[in-house]
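Deliverable D4.2, example record:
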Amino acid sequence: MTTERPIIICTRGSALALAQSDMIAAQCRAAFPELRFELQIIKTTGDKLQKASMAKTDPSLPKGLFTKELEVAMLNGEADMAVHSLKDLPTELPSGLILAATPKREDVRDVLIYRQAGSAHRGFPSHLKLKDFPKGATIATSSTRRRMSLLAVRPDLNIVEIRGNVATRMQKVADHGELDATILALAGLTRLNFKINADGIIHGDAVPKGLFATVLGLDEMLPCVGQGAIGIETRANDERVAKICERLNHAETFSAVTAERAFLRGMGGGCQSPVGAFAEISGNAISLKAISFRDEVVKRGEARRPVGEAIQLGEQIAAELK
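Output generated by the structure prediction step:
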């Protein structure tokens, strides 16, 4: 490759989005020191609609709440790569754009965040399980999947909506006694350099004092499609950027999320659809576990196929659960 104009990496401006984009930019610079990479921060529709409900599918909300403006920038030639939390990227992309790479995935599990006993508001001991919350406890989440997963285990829980970034949500639990807990993705905490100690205490920059964390097992809560993965979206015909993405891609992660996204597409849903899925590779095989809460009915599916049939695997389970 020859030295040309800078390659523009566009991203949202949230702390997590910037952490992920900085990580990708660092990988690009290390792999291609002769090229220049610059970040461009773009505010998306989802960033502007801070009061819109994310807890249910609202037909008035546009698709690609957190991706559309980044995609427009690429299609207009103002940016060359977009770094997304893959869970936010719709399964149907605009003509001319592709999911070009997925770096190695982080832990896909969700984390229960709650106050320690002895704090100003009601608190609980460390290593708390969902079954341990008192009857009618209030848990805040903006995810339909998380809400339905919680109610499937504890139908007595009071589920309320919450908005804001990772730090904001933790602060709300620390400050508001009417909230007993919230749920966050472990991958997001990890990428923001938060650490959960063996005693359950969260450590990191600007973490509110007095909070515990419990990592939820996949048997308790399947993640949303693409959770823990970063998606790099590019123009389909950009050969220069394609060579960069080849170095960034982690093949096993790409195959796993391909199966999950095929499942989500087969279910006809977007990032707020009441479904969860997790695919993993073992040797030459790929397995997929999925759950659907459509129409308030819980349906589960699981299957295994050769890695090369990741799309067919997702479509197969979607057909079974629809």
